[in-house]
Design brief:
- It is a single chain.
- By secondary structure, the chain is α+β, with helices and mostly antiparallel strands.
- It contains eleven helices and 15 strands.
- The protein has a single domain, classed as 3-Layer(aba) Sandwich (Beta-lactamase).
- Helix content is 36%, strand content 18%.
- The chain has a seven-stranded antiparallel β-sheet with strand order 3-2-1-15-14-13-12, with helices on both faces. A two-stranded antiparallel sheet has the order 4-9.
Length: 379
């Protein structure tokens, strides 16, 4: 009897494997799992959450590895990752929501709204506008000699957006330096800037008379049922968060949870299960059912090159890569990506708890190859 049962069991495994090999879709999905596992092993990635979305539906989602190595906690669809600069899409949406409501124009002088003046030291006669900030052509530069020490471990930054931006961008500020600006006249030179997106978030606070966190919660996160999403560590369950890791020849070491005074540039935290809601609303033109985050025309404005002669791949906090629009993110212990093909309504999200661009490029490519094979994607 034992022999018979063993034969039946082995036969069922063989038949199942044979069916997978005969079904191109199942074979492609099995290959994708194997390829991601190989990338994680080769590139020393602790944990990954990834998904593919088509026409508003999740057609594939998987999680791999560990959110916390020491605690042996696996990554799940509800594991909360720090997004890095992928966060900028939400910062841009928050601002464009105010633009859409007629509360500010893209070509206004930002000093018409601020309680202090931001002036480029080499070009004081040229106004800095939201269009410039959103396109990274404002002349504001990230001075890491100043920004680096403002990172804080295990807590949220004690600096308000007003305190930081005023002290960094005004000549009598405690963080001010001529090196906080590049040499170009505002509107004439591209330079990616995290401080610029922090200033955009502060404009949201000034214009809305609400904190940036509260504005995002009320107008973006809660309407999309992103209920475990926040810019602040204090608002999240640490047990649900993926630990950021560094990898050296000695192995993995936890970097710890951290934040910064420039948190609107990259410190949004959410799970892939919730980020899918954001991806879906973007691919569906700004609304899902009765929930509208932005009008389609405003969203299209964000996915437009406003300074094509200066930057050929950047709209309003949306990066362009071929037919894809979206953004990536990285930092100590984190790499993320969310890109989609608007015309085909096809999109991919990837979250990892280690900084490794080679790995995320490879995983993204493996996902797209599988989606083309298994589900006839155009991306």
């Amino acid at each position: 009897m034992v022999v018979v049962i063993s034969i039946i069991f082995i036969s069922s495994i063989f038949i199942t494997g044979l069916l997978i090999l005969q079904d191109p879709k199942q074979q492609a999905l099995a290959t994708l799992d194997s390829n991601i596992a190989n990338v994680m092993d080769d590139q020393h990635i602790p944990g990954v959450a990834a998904c593919a979305v088509k026409n508003g539906s999740v057609i594939w989602m998987e999680t791999y590895g560990l959110a916390d190595i020491d605690q042996n906690i696996s990554v799940t669809p509800d594991t909360i990752f720090m997004l890095g600069s992928l966060s900028k899409i939400v910062t841009g949406i928050a601002f464009m929501h105010l633009y859409e409501n007629g509360l500010i124009d893209l070509d206004d002088d930002i000093n018409d709204y601020l309680v202090f003046d931001v002036v480029h030291p080499d070009h004081p006669e040229t106004a800095i506008t939201p269009r410039m900030l959103l396109s990274h052509v404002s002349g504001i530069r990230d001075n890491w000699l100043i920004l680096g020490p403002l990172e804080v471990s295990g807590m949220d930054s004690p600096l308000s957006l007003e305190e930081f931006t005023q002290n960094y961008l005004t000549s009598n500020g405690s963080y001010y330096s001529a090196a906080n600006f590049n040499d170009g006249e505002p509107g004439t030179e591209y330079e990616y800037t995290n401080v610029g997106s922090t200033l955009i978030a502060y404009l949201v606070e000034v214009i809305s008379n609400a904190t940036f966190e509260d504005y995002c919660q009320q107008n973006i996160f809660l309407p999309l049922n992103m209920n475990e999403t926040s810019w602040f560590l204090e608002n999240l369950d640490e047990d649900m968060m993926a630990m950021p890791y560094l990898y050296t020849s000695s192995g993995f070491s936890p970097y710890g949870h951290y934040s910064s005074a420039v948190y609107p540039c990259g410190f949004m935290r959410t799970s892939i299960h919730q980020e899918i809601q954001l991806l879906t609303v973007l691919m569906e033109g700004g609304s899902i059912g009765d929930t509208e985050i932005l009008s389609n025309s405003t969203l299209q404005l964000m996915m437009t090159l406003h300074y094509p002669s200066i930057s050929s791949n950047y709209g309003f906090y949306f990066q362009k890569s071929g037919v894809l629009w979206g953004h990536g993110g990285s930092g100590p212990g984190v790499t993320t990506r969310m890109f989609f093909y608007p015309e085909a309504h096809e999109g991919v999200i990837i979250m990892m708890n280690l900084e490794n661009h080679v790995a995320i490029d490879s995983i993204h490519n493996h996902i797209l190859v599988c989606m083309r094979t298994a589900f006839d994607w155009l991306t």
